[in-house]
């Protein structure tokens, strides 16, 4: 809602932070913000500008997100730990109030987009494996080094590291460029890309204002209508984003965390939670990448709610929740009787993960077993028994030989070294 306390309406060419950033194109939005591709005139780089809704509640959430992102940036000067980098933050006053803005490094498509590009068919396990390594690297950093819980891990909140420079490769980056160059200056310091034709004049003015020179528009083009993605040869490097729901393990803010489908059982039962909730979401995410389907998609039914359906789905896949765990949470009485059986859903159809991968998703048996062996321990109903991100990084599944380096001596050698 673009109203008081809500989103800040942005027009292409709008300037932020005293003219340092110029809005180019909307990248996405969430419940809290809109996110724009912007050009940083100070560094001549493209950045993602996250503009928070203005009301107090959203402003507080943004301050909190900035605190977490800042801590993540401070602890990783080399920017190698798979967490989105905060570059700057400032306030912007508009007609709907004062908006906190975060300037983030510009990243590429989310893994959810990637799943969609693949028409929900799932991607090769070698790609999934690559992506898993990056996510786990990020989680290990957040958990072990920073003491932070992300609390909202899911494909939408993991973005590919963009290797695309919007200025050099506007088509692949999905931009329709209007290139502007200052007249009589080849250095092109105020080169901008802007998309809508009707905004040409506006863009021209804005560019001229910044560069202090007149500029001319060189060209216009349309992005291809449907860009299909061939994942061959694409580097799957990715980073964890959206720290709006993050917290410190020793300073939590909410009982109910995580997006429904990625929510851990202890959160539903309210038996207390820690880092291992992110591991649960990680396992759900890995499954979704491999199959194109959400691992758990609970629905409310006749006589039972979404929570109870969710618990039933978990048990059908992973076996019965041990009684002690089932009845140990503040909300347990809502769903379980004293024997540890669900109150309203009595008949469960067990379908273990390896069988599911073989029968429904047609994975070869050996591959399915290996993948299930990797995922199942991460979905232990006892949170303290789940492996940590660090332990997962040691798991043989992540270092399995893939077809592409099979028979390649070097590949085998380096695998042996990793294992040894
Ligand atoms: P939510 O409702 O999920 O909490 P939010 O308002 O906190 O949303 P984000 O999830 O941080 O916002 O960002 C919204 C969308 O903007 C993302 O899903 C993504 O498409 C895009 N986006 C966010 N950060 C970046 C970035 N650094 N680079 C490129 N795109 C980004
Ligand atoms: Mg988000
Ligand atoms: Mg958020």
Record keyword descriptors for this entry:
420 residues; 13 helices; disordered C terminus; 32% helix; two-stranded antiparallel sheet; binds adenosine-5'-triphosphate; binds magnesium ion; alpha+beta; six-stranded antiparallel sheet
Give a structural overview.
This protein has 13 helices and 12 strands. It is an alpha+beta fold and 420 residues long. A hairpin with a 2-residue loop joins strand 5 (86-94) and strand 6 (97-105). Helix 3 (125-146) packs antiparallel against helix 6. The longest helix is centred in the first third of the chain and has 22 residues, at 125-146. Residues 171-199, 214-228 and 403-420 have low confidence and may be disordered. One magnesium ion is lined by residues 30, 32, 242, 244. Residues 27-33, 35, 48, 50, 84, 104-107, 110, 156-157, 159, 241-242, 244 line the site of adenosine-5'-triphosphate. GO terms for molecular function: ATP binding; protein serine/threonine kinase activity.
